[in-house]
Specification:
There is one protein chain. The protein is an alpha+beta fold. Helices cover 34% and strands 15% of the residues. The protein is globular and about 50 Å long.
Length: 195
């Protein structure tokens, strides 16, 4: 049985833009798809123009194409549960938060700004017909060592980017999760005050 990956629209309580309602995070990526340079540039431009507290732009990125040494280093840092499927992504992007200035002043919003940048990249990817899966399961120390990052450059997330493929390609243990209904907490549980 083929598990479809393209009918995953969110059931929302209010109308959303298609780019948001149709966005989801697959694990099955097409290993034949290769993102061209124009696509990579568009993704990074979206991240670059994301909001930034005080315009500090305290985020940096490591962008690695499948088959490169950098891609292998990122893959090696992934948790065991992420490696089997992430290797088929066209790109792996490490998002890095610069937590302090060169003078040692803390950048309180660096993690938030890094998240904003990847959120914008995610929407741009979806607009280009691609999918993104963000991962927290990785070894930040291994990435810092692999890419010679200074102490203030903290890896926040690793993001797999590519063209979604049939869930049938996945090892069995991931197939149910790939096709399970999408869920979110209701707004009544998320919003503490709405006056």
């Amino acid at each position: 049985m083929t598990l479809l990956t393209d009918d995953r629209r969110a059931e929302t309580s209010a109308p959303l833009h298609d780019l948001l309602a149709d966005r989801w995070s697959p694990r099955s990526f097409d290993p034949a798809y290769e993102a061209d340079e124009e696509t990579v540039a568009a993704l990074l431009e979206a991240a670059r123009w994301a909001p930034s507290a005080a315009n500090l732009q305290a985020r940096r990125f490591v962008v690695a194409r499948r088959g490169s040494e950098a891609f292998q280093a990122i893959t090696d840092s992934l948790a065991e549960g992420n490696r089997p499927w992430a290797v088929d992504a066209s790109l792996l992007v490490v998002t890095i938060a610069l937590t302090t200035s060169p003078e040692g002043k803390p950048f309180r919003w660096a993690d938030y700004d890094a998240g904003q940048a990847i959120a914008h990249l995610t929407v741009q990817a979806h607009a280009l017909g691609l999918h993104v899966h963000q991962m927290g399961g990785f070894d930040p120390e291994a990435l810092a060592l692999a890419f010679d990052l200074p102490d203030e450059a903290v890896p926040v997330t690793v993001t797999a980017i590519g063209r979604a493929a049939s869930a049938d390609r996945l090892p069995e243990r991931y197939r149910d999760r790939e096709s399970a209904p999408r869920t979110r907490l209701p707004l009544s549980e998320l919003v503490l005050v709405r006056d």
